[in-house]
Structures are given as structure tokens and as C-alpha cells.
What we know:
By secondary structure, this protein is α/β, with parallel strands linked by helices. It is 41% helix and 20% strand. α1 (16-29) crosses α9 and α3 packs antiparallel against α4.
Amino acid sequence: xxxxxxxxxxxxxxxxxxxxxxxxxxxxxxxxxxxxxxxxxxxxxxxxxxxxxxxxxxxxxxxxxxxxxxxxxxxxxxxxxxxxxxxxxxxxxxxxxxxxxxxxxxxxxxxxxxxxxxxxxxxxxxxxxxxxxxxxxxxxxxxxxxxxxxxxxxxxxxxxxxxxxxxxxxxxxxxxxxxxxxxxxxxxxxxxxxxxxxxxxxxxxxxxxxxxxxxxxxxxxxxxxxxxxxxxxxxxxxxxxxxxxxxxxxxxx
Length: 253
Ligand SMILES: Nc1ncnc2c1ncn2[C@@H]1O[C@H](COP(=O)(O)OP(=O)(O)OP(=O)(O)O)[C@@H](O)[C@H]1O
Ligand SMILES: [Mg+2]
């Protein structure tokens, strides 16, 4: 049985990585472990927000593996891949972090990608919960070779541009060969109780996440932001995780 997968998407800077790290901590706090955290953004920052060192990435491994594939005297590639991948998986208390790193370069990595696809499927089976932080836009989910997610969290700031981007992303999702069971729109950094008009954004549920000035300050200092200091934020993240894990309610779809 593959793990329950929560994937983040949304406009650049909307808060995907911040919310991913908080959800990961909340899963660990509520003993829903082990969690597999996947940083699928080439400009990887999930390790930073979680306060975890990332020694190497799948991108580095692709290069090493590509070179090894040319060497016929090497030991079986599957075994090499297993060894190297386990080096890349950063083990923390309650969760493991896998950092994808830079996407494919000019060389062809089809062979390596096939191994990787198999490995990700296998890995997913070892964890009851998987959280994927993605780069802005939707392309990476297909590139990641994931074809079904339980919950897609669309993060958007409460502005006209934020809403327009969320609407576009939600439409793109419908055109991808991607199965999404539960689609949540998270209006992040909201400074008022008033929610923008979300009626043209297809989502099963909508949640408002307040602007947290303490979090903004910690982020400005380059400190981890996964530990929720403010009570309001803690309540909201609890609510957000509940939404992510429950069956869809069809708010605006
Ligand atoms: N609820 C919030 N209150 C205050 N600041 C927030 C909130 N959510 C996110 N931020 C801040 O917004 C900035 C962008 O957040 P984050 O890096 O998580 O966005 P992102 O969507 O992952 O960006 P990118 O697309 O560049 O990966 C950070 O400085 C973060 O601390
Ligand atoms: Mg990010």
C-alpha cells in the first residue's frame, strides 16, 4: 500500500515550503510516522526550513549513475543505485528527507530515471505519509514520475494575482495525467478574516492561513520555520493537516 501523499503547489513565494515543513512536523508530532519528505524543487530549501543538512541530492546521483552506466565492469547498477540512494536519504527523528536537486541536464538519463521511478515507488511503500514540496508550477509532478497524489495543496496569497494563479494551476491539474483525490486551496499570509473570491477555483476545501509576523522574522533571519510558535498558527496547521488527511468534501468543484 503506497503512503498517503500530500503534494504542494502554488505560485513562487506563496509559502509552499513553509507549509510543507510545518505539515511534516505536525505529522511527526501526532506520531504519524515515519514521514518521507521529498524536496522536488531544484532550488531546494526544505532542508533549510526543517533545519536539516542535505549532503547530496538525486541530481548528483544522476550524474554519478550516468557515468557508471557507461562502465560495463561496474557492479549491478540496481545495487549501486540502492547504496547511493540510501546515502542521500537524510534520516531524522520521525522523518526522512529526500532532496531531488537539479533536474536533468543535456545528457540522456532515461535509464537512470527508470531506476529512480522504480525506487520512488518502492520507497513510497515504506512510509505511511509522504509530503512533496514542489517548485512553482505543475511540471515537476509529472517529471517526478508521480501519477497519483492523495492531496494536492494549492497555496496562494490573498491577492488578485494569487487567485488568478491558483485558478490557472487548478485548471492545469485537470489536463495532466495525474490522479488527485483531494484538492485544497490554502489562502496563505492572510492579514484579515475576509477571504478573496475563490468561486472560480476548483477545490474540495478552502482554508485561510494567517500572516504570522514571528514566522516572517525567523525566515528573514534564515532560521528554521517548521516549529509553530504562535498558537493561532498551531491551530491552523492542525486544521490543515486534518483537511489533508480526510476524504474530500467538494467545496468549489
Ligand atoms: N503564514 C505566513 N506568515 C508570514 N510569512 C510567511 C507565511 N507563509 C510563508 N511566509 C514567508 O513567505 C516567504 C516565502 O515562503 P516559502 O519559501 O515557503 O514560499 P515557496 O512557495 O516555497 O517559495 P518558492 O516558490 O520560492 O519555493 C518566506 O519568507 C516565508 O517565511
Ligand atoms: Mg519553496
